[in-house]
Amino acid sequence: MLSAGGMVPGAGGLKGSLVLIPKKALDFHDFHGTAMDGGTDTELFGGGVTCQLISSTLRGRAAGKASRGEVGEEANLEPCLLLKKSLLSAPTGEERFEVTFNWSMELGVPGAIIVKNNSDTEFYLKTITLHDVPGHGGAVVFVANSWVYPQAKYSYNRVFFAADRCRRRAARSTRS
Q1: 159: how many CB neighbours lie within 10 A of its CB?
Q2: CA-to-CA distance for 50 and 64, rounded, in angstroms?
Q3: Prediction pTM value
Q4: What tens digit of pLDDT does each residue of 154-173 get?
Q5: What is the third-level CATH fold of 4-175?
Q6: End-to-end Cα separation, the chain, in angstroms
Q7: CA nearest to 102, candidates 79, 73, 128, 129
Q8: How far apart are CA 26 and CA 29, in angstroms?
Q9: Kindly report the CA angle at 84 between 143 and 91, in degrees rounded to 5?
Q10: Short-list 89, 98, 169, CA closest to 130
Q11: What is the pLDDT of residues 80-89, one digit of tens each?
């Protein structure tokens, strides 16, 4: 069910979460000052890291070029207040952030995501999960397991694909 204007229903759009490990959490020379500090990495939210969804079902409008999936608006990470820093995450350094996408269901089901690191330090991105995606029947999960360096070090966007899309693509290629 869509709200007025075709936007995803709920408080402000399509909700998601990211699990990542900031580089400082993996600094073995300063264990007490990194993994045990009890805070979150504040430079990663508020524009430090942005995400953009890419439609798996609707093609973008690229003049004279092969079109790709329609790209949504950039969304900033938000601190996850419920799972700030639990005892389980302290040894691993994992942090969870929330993100809310302004995503119209007219764009279809997201199949890929662009992640831009606008901060000064890299982080290890584990997963991105979109919760309760209408038209998909549940969650869409992007398994990254990849370092994301500051945007200034790239001449291209970091794109991660939904896990179920990757499995279907691999299954098709093994059949041929």
Answers
A1: 14
A2: 28
A3: 0.74
A4: 889 999 999 875 444 444 44
A5: Lipoxygenase-1 (2.60.60)
A6: 38
A7: 73
A8: 9
A9: 70
A10: 98
A11: 655 444 444 5
